[in-house]
Sequence to fold (143 residues):
Amino acid sequence: MNETNQIIAVFIVRVFFGMIILLQGYDKVFRVGIKQVIETIQHPLHDIRHIPKFFLAGGVIFTSFVELIGGMLLIIGFLKHLTLYLIALDIIIAAIGLGIMKPMWDMKHVFPRFIMLVFLLIMPSQWDVICVDHVISIISISK
Fold:
C-alpha cells in the first residue's frame, strides 16, 4: 500500500468516526436533551436494576459531552489521542449500560464504532498528517 493511500485512509476513518460521534452527542445535547436521555434510561437502570440516579446522570452528561466535543476534535484532528481515550471510555460506559439494561443487546451500533476506534488507535501517527495535531508538531519543531 502506498503512503498516500495510508494517509487518506486514516483521514477518512477519523473524519467519518468523528462525524458519527459528533452527531450522536449533538442529538443527546441539543435535539433530545440531557434530561430526556436520563429519563429514557431511568426505568431500566434505576427503577429495575437500582443503579443510583447520580451514576445515570453523570454517565449521560459525560458521554453526551465527550461525544459532542470529541467528535469535533476528531474531525479537525486536535488532541486525537486524548479524545480517542475519552471516546473509548464513552463506548465502555455505553456497553455497560446496554448490557445491564438488556444482557443480549444488539451490538450493530456500538461494534462499528469500536472497530473505527481501534483502527485509529493502532494506526501509526505518521499516517495521520491531515490534522491540526500534525500542523502543531511541524510548527513546534521549526521553532
Summary: DSSP finds six helices and no strands in the chain.
